[in-house]
Design brief:
The protein is an alpha+beta fold. It is built from 10 helices and 4 strands, in the order E-H-E-H-E-E-H-H-H-H-H-H-H-H. The longest helix is centred in the middle third of the chain and has 27 residues.
Length: about 230
């Protein structure tokens, strides 16, 4: 099947879309990026993902694949000529999948708690909770990387892509709320890792400019607060 038959439905600023784009770039897959509108979802999106009705959706030929973690694994399985994304050893693959699920289950909700926090005490508690998650991830990095630059070793892999896709919004929140999440004192390896990850060619081609993400985040977060004012 020709690579020209690959389409990605997404929104440019979504970390879940960004991780899919990084995986496609890493495998050197030619694809068409179709920007969707979550306020007025396209017919193609509703047809391709009738269950969740959300992005990303990878369309390979006429077959839609939904949910970003599943899409990244699918990309790794289909385009075998490029560098491997998931580890080769079954235990390492299971470990990577565990931490990927942990990130989506714990990290993403923790950032939303920061968004909803009212007052200095609540904000500090929310930030501390998020930092605790990063400390756990720091330990996971040490075990998975085995002293190498990335979770995947010498090259970026599954966990690098999954966590790295959140970095734009992580840094945006640090700026908007005047907080520090990735801290040299608590997560020195992740601080170093983040700089290397963002310099990778596959990431540069998928990650929007930080200033653009931060300004977009300001608008979205302000809109959310206006729609859900404190009681």
């Amino acid at each position: 099947m020709a690579e020209s038959e690959v389409k990605l439905l997404g929104v440019w600023a979504s970390p879940f879309v960004i991780r899919t784009r990084i995986a496609l770039n890493l495998k050197n897959v030619n694809y068409a990026f179709l920007q969707d509108n979550m306020a007025a979802k396209s017919e193609l999106l509703l047809k391709s993902n009738p269950v969740y009705k959300k992005v990303p959706v990878l369309i390979h030929g006429d077959k839609p694949i939904c949910e970003s973690l599943i899409i990244v694994q699918y990309i790794d399985d289909i385009w075998t000529s490029g560098p491997s994304i998931l580890p080769s050893h079954p235990y390492d693959r299971a470990t990577a999948r565990f931490w990927a699920a942990f990130l989506d289950d714990k990290w993403y909700p923790a950032t939303r708690v920061i968004d909803d926090a009212e007052g200095e005490e609540a904000k500090k508690a929310a930030v501390d909770q998020a930092v605790e998650i990063l400390v756990l991830l720091e330990e996971a990095f040490k075990k998975c990387s085995r002293g190498k630059p990335f979770f995947g070793g010498d090259q970026i892999g599954y966990l690098d892509i999954v966590f790295g896709s959140f970095l734009g919004w992580l840094r945006a929140r640090e700026t908007i709320y005047d907080i520090k999440l990735l801290r040299q004192a608590k997560t020195p390896d992740l601080v170093k890792w983040a700089e290397k990850f963002l310099q990778h060619p596959a990431v540069i081609g998928a990650m929007p400019e930080q200033e653009k993400v931060t300004e977009f985040a300001r608008v979205i977060l302000a809109r959310m607060k206006a729609a859900n004012p404190p009681k």
